[in-house]
Every structure is written in C-alpha cells, then in structure tokens.
Amino acid sequence: MEKRDNEFITTYRAAIKREGADKLLDYLISKSDFFTAPASSKFHSDYEGGLLDHSLNVYHRLLRLVESEYGEGWKDVISPESVAIVGLLHDVCKINYYKVSYRNVKKDGVWEQQPYYTIEDELPYGHGEKSVYIISGFMRLTREEAMAINWHMGGFDDRVKGGSYTVGHAFEKYPLAVLAHSADFLATYFDEKKDEQ
Ligand SMILES: [Fe+2]
Ligand SMILES: [Fe+2]
Q1: Distance 90 CA to ligand 2 centre (A)
Q2: Do 183 and 175 meet the contact criterion of CB atoms below 8 Å apart?
Q3: Which one, of 183, 113, 197, 196, lies nearest residue 148 by Cα?
Q4: HSE of 15 in the Cβ direction (CA atoms, 13 Å)?
Q5: What is the whole-number distance in angstroms between the Cα of residue 182 and the centre of ligand 2?
Q6: DSSP per residue over 150-192, as a string?
Q7: Is residue 151 a part of any domain in this protein?
Q8: What is the model's pTM?
Q9: In a domain? residue 166
Q10: Are 30 and 91 in contact (CB under 8 A)?
C-alpha cells in the first residue's frame, strides 16, 4: 500500500469513530476512485493520487490553523474528530468525477497519444453541498461540520459567483467554516503549487 494511502486510513480510523464511519471508509477504498483520482483536471494536484494528497494537505493545514487560533485548549472548542472529517472528506465530491481521455500530440515528429483528465460527473449535485450529501449517506455530520464542508470553497463557490451572500452569514456563525476555507486555500496555493515551467 502506498505511504499516503496508509496515512489517510490510519488518520481516519484514529480520529473518526462515529456510527457509519467504517462504512464510508469502506466505500472510499473499494467502491470509489478516491485513492487514485486527481484533485483537478489541470490546476492543483492534477495527477493520479492528487485528491488523496490534497485531502491530507488540507487536514494538516486545518489542524495547524485550529491549534494556532485556539491554543493549547483547542480540543475544547473544536473536536479532533471534526477536524479530521472536514479536512479529509471535504472534497469527496471529486470521487468518480474525472476521467482519463487521450489526445494526439506530435513529439519529435511522431504522433503519440497523451492522456489527460476530463470532467465526467457521475453525480452532478454541486461541490461542497455534494460532499455533505455523500458523507450524510453514511454518517451524521454536526451542523458546524456540514457548514464547513458545504462552504469550503468560500468566494470561489459557484453559488457565491452567482450572487449569493449566504457564505458570509455561514462564516459569521461558524468559525470552522472560515478555517476550512483557509486550509483549502493554503493547501492549494502553497502545498500544491505547480512547478514553474
Ligand atoms: Fe473543493
Ligand atoms: Fe479542496
């Protein structure tokens, strides 16, 4: 098993104990492409296993943000289980979402087939709201976890781009949502920065 597969499973099992958690993990491992999917088609972590890397990166970022915001007693404010659920599972909406296609590219005068990712969404339900929907099919989320996962894209969410102000109201009421969006943003632009070419 790959090192990061192990890290995800170990972190998940140690932190997420509520009813249904084992069934959700089983679904991720054996009935989805979670461990091989990319995190995007051509932006951050657009490679096999990119979604797994991104999910772990967001989890680690979120843990650091929660610790620095609330100090030593952070576990009294936000449960470690919530941090793991939001960090590790915020992007399960990207399961069964990207497909490999091929295009012809000329290399040294010879045409060859080059793979690339296209979007083929098996469950067109949205983004953050879709992650909440998928997770809720297996286990109950707290209100704050659902808010954090639903609004993790912040101002990049399609609903916000369509003119909705709801994300601002959610951020005012649920600090974990603010921290989850910040963690997603930092992981994407710092941890997964694409090499200059
Ligand atoms: Fe996302
Ligand atoms: Fe993300």
Answers
A1: 6
A2: no
A3: 183
A4: 21
A5: 10
A6: HTTTGGGSHHHHTT--HHHHHHHH-HHHHHHHHHHHHIIIIIT
A7: yes
A8: 0.94
A9: yes
A10: no
Distance 55 CA to ligand 2 centre (A): 7
Q: Is residue 177 part of a domain?
A: yes
State which amino acid sits at residue 93.
Answer: C
Residue 42 in tokens: 């051509």
* H or E element, residue 98: strand 98-107
Would you write out the chain's pLDDT as a tens digit for each of its 197 residues? 689 999 999 999 999 999 999 999 999 999 999 999 999 998 888 999 999 999 999 999 999 999 999 999 999 999 999 999 999 999 999 999 999 999 999 989 999 999 999 999 999 999 999 999 999 999 999 999 999 999 999 999 999 999 999 999 999 999 999 999 999 999 999 999 876 43
Domain presence at residue 196? no
Distance 107 CA to ligand 1 centre (A): 34
